[in-house]
Design a protein that fits this description.
Structural class: alpha/beta
Strand order of the largest sheet: 4-3-2-1-5-6
Shape: elongated
Order of helices and strands: HEHEEHEHEHEHHHEEEHHEEEEEEEE
Largest sheet: 6 strands, mixed
Number of helices: 10
Helix content: 25-40%
Bound molecules: cobalt (II) ion
C-alpha cells in the first residue's frame, strides 16, 4: 500500500519534471511512510526521489522508529542534539545526487528552518512549492482510510451522546468544552484532537469560528458544538446545534429548519462527476430561497482526512469534479449577528453513485438542558 502511494507520487513528479519531493513531519510524510513524527525544533524531512530509495533525515531518537517501521527500503541519516542537523542533511544531499534537479516542497507547511537546511545542503537545488502533488495523492481515500474516518466519526458521536445529558443552562461554554474533550478521549479518540472544540452559545453562535468563552449558557439559547475526533491520524469534524430549554425565538427555529434543509440538499447533490461548486450551490439555494442567503457567510465545506482542512474545497467557484472516495464536510450555516446561529456539519464520502454520510447523529432540532 505505501509502495503504491510512493509510486503514484513518483509518477506525478516525473510527469511534472520534478526530481524529488520533500515532506516534513506531518500528514504527507505519514501518508507516504506510515511513520508519524512530532513537529518540533528538530527537523525531520523525508525525501522522495523519482528514482532510488527515499531518504529520511531525523533526530537520533527516531532511528529505531525508522529502521523498525519503514514500509520499504529507506536510507536514513540521523543527528544528535549536540551535533545539530547540518551534517546529516549534507549526507542526505550526497546520497540523493540531485545535482541541479528540481526539488518540490510543501509550500504551505515547510518552515524557514528546513528550507535553509535544504539550501545549505544541496549544491544547486531549485526548491519549489509542490503542495498540489501531495494533495492530489491524498484526495481520494481507500477503504482503509474511509474505515478510520468512520471510526473517528463514531467516536465523536459517542462523545456527543455522553456530553449532552450533562449540559444545563447556567453552565459556561468552557465547562461544556471541557466535558466534550474528556468524553472524546474517553470514547477512544487519538489524544491529538483535530482541533479545539467550538462551544458557542446565544449571540456567540453567530460567529462561525467562535472561541470558547466563559459566557453562561442561558435558557432559550442556541448552542453550537463543533468538535472532532481522530483515529490513526484520520479526522472527524462534526457540528450540531441545539436549543437550550426555555422560550425560543421563532426566527431561530426558522433558520434551524433552513440549515437542516441545506445540509440535506448538499448531501443529495454530491455524487461522482458533479462539481464542488454545484454541491455548494444546491445547499446555498435552500438558504437563499428562505431569505437568509446573505447570512450563510462561508463555503459549504472542506476536504477532510489526515488534515482538518484539505482538498477538495467545497466553494462556489471550485469546478473540480467529485470522484468516488473523496471525503469532505457538508456544513451550511446561518449566522444572525447579535442573535444566534445554526450550523449542521456532516462528514461524507462520495460513493459510486452518490454520497454517504459517515455521521448519523440526528439533525432534528433537539431541546437539551431540561
Ligand atoms: Co468543518
Amino acid at each position: 500500500m505505501y509502495l503504491t502511494r510512493l509510486n503514484r507520487l513518483r509518477a506525478a513528479l516525473a510527469a511534472a519534471n520534478l526530481d524529488c519531493a520533500a515532506a516534513i513531519a506531518g500528514p504527507n510524510l505519514y501518508y507516504l511512510t506510515g511513520l508519524s513524527f512530532h513537529l518540533s525544533e528538530r527537523p525531520t524531512v523525508g525525501f522522495f526521489p523519482v528514482s532510488g530509495d527515499p531518504v529520511l533525515v531525523a533526530g537520533s531518537l527516531e532511528e529505531s522508529k525508522i529502521t523498525g517501521g519503514a514500509p520499504y527500503p529507506v536510507r536514513h541519516f540521523v543527528y544528535t542534539d549536540a551535533d545539530g542537523p547540518g551534517a546529516a542533511f549534507r549526507e542526505a544531499a550526497l546520497a540523493l545526487k540531485l545535482g541541479k534537479g528540481r526539488l518540490g516542497v510543501e509550500g504551505r507547511r515547510m518552515r524557514v528552518m528546513e528550507l535553509h537546511l535544504l539550501e545549505e545542503s544541496f549544491a544547486n537545488p531549485t526548491v519549489e512549492p509542490a503542495e498540489e502533488f501531495f494533495a492530489a495523492l491524498r484526495m481520494t481515500k481507500d477503504e482503509m482510510e474511509i474505515g478510520y474516518m468512520r471510526q473517528a466519526v463514531q467516536i465523536a458521536e459517542r462523545a456527543l451522546a455522553a456530553t449532552l445529558p450533562k449540559i444545563r443552562a447556567g453552565m459556561t461554554e468552557r465547562e461544556v468544552a471541557a466535558e466534550l474533550v474528556v468524553q472524546t478521549l474517553r470514547a477512544g479518540s487519538d489524544a491529538d484532537l483535530p482541533f479545539a472544540p467550538i462551544v458557542a452559545s446565544g449571540p456567540n453562535a453567530a460567529l462561525p469560528h467562535a472561541f470558547v468563552t466563559d459566557r453562561v449558557i442561558q435558557p432559550g439559547d442556541l448552542l453550537t458544538l463543533d468538535w472532532g475526533a481522530a483515529t490513526r491520524g484520520y479526522f472527524a469534524d462534526l457540528t450540531r446545534t441545539f436549543a437550550v430549554g426555555g422560550e425560543m425565538d421563532p426566527e431561530l427555529k426558522k433558520i434551524y429548519e433552513l440549515v437542516k434543509g441545506a445540509n440535506a440538499a448538499g448531501k443529495a447533490a454530491a455524487r461522482p462527476g458533479v462539481t464542488c461548486a454545484s454541491v455548494d450551490a444546491a445547499a446555498r439555494k435552500v438558504i437563499a430561497d428562505g431569505g437568509y442567503g446573505e447570512f450563510f457567510v462561508h463555503r459549504l465545506g472542506h476536504g477532510l482526512g489526515l488534515e482538518g482542512h484539505e482538498d477538495p474545497s467545497m466553494h462556489g467557484r471550485n469546478e473540480m469534479r467529485l470522484e468516488a472516495g473523496m471525503t469532505f464536510t457538508v456544513e451550511p450555516g446561518i449566522y444572525l449577528p447579535g442573535k444566534g446561529g445554526v450550523r449542521i456539519e456532516d462528514d461524507v464520502v462520495v460513493t459510486a453513485n452518490g454520497c454517504e454520510s459517515l455521521s448519523t447523529y440526528p439533525r432534528e432540532l433537539q431541546i437539551i438542558g431540561v
